[in-house]
Amino acid sequence: EVQLVESGGGLVQPGGSLRLSCAASGFTFSSSAMSWVRQAPGKGLEWVSSIYSYNSNTYYADSVKGRFTISRDNATNTVYLQMNNLKPEDTAIYYCNLNMYWGQGTQVTVSS
Fold first, then answer.
1. Band (21; pLDDT cuts 50, 70, 90)
2. For residues 1-21, b (16+ Cβ closer than 10 Å) or e, as one string?
3. CB 5 within 8 A of CB 103
4. Other CB atoms within 10 A of residue 111 CB
């Protein structure tokens, strides 16, 4: 059974940082591309970032490029999202995603 468990969300002031984690199990993590997707209040899903398995290439939405960094640890089956210089518009529930599988999400709130 595929399981994705996010953690690391919270309340942070504008300009602050958070690191999200997604612990994965139930599939071959090292050969799977992983993504982060977010949903702001009252809005649809927005793709944030992806990391591929075979070359660890990373991709980012324009809205987060230069501020967020995705990474993975194949030894612990974990994918991370380092978020720096957070803005109020980054407020959302952040989901870890593998194809049709989703975690439960972790809330990130950026507010002074």
1. very high
2. eeebebebbeebeeeeebebb
3. yes
4. 10
Going through 3-67 in order, the beta strands assigned E by DSSP cover 3-7, 10-12, 18-25, 34-39, 45-51, 58-60
Query: What would the pLDDT profile of 46-93 be if each residue is shown by its tens digit?
Result: 999 999 987 679 999 999 999 999 999 999 999 999 999 999 999 999
Strand-pair partners of 49: 36, 60
Tokens of 5: 């468990």
Buried b (16+ CB within 10 A) or exposed e, 46-83: eebbbbeeeeeeeebeeebeeebbbebeeeebbbbbeb
Instruction: For residue 33, give the nearest of 79, 75, 81 by alpha carbon.
Output: 79
d(CA 69, CA 59): 9
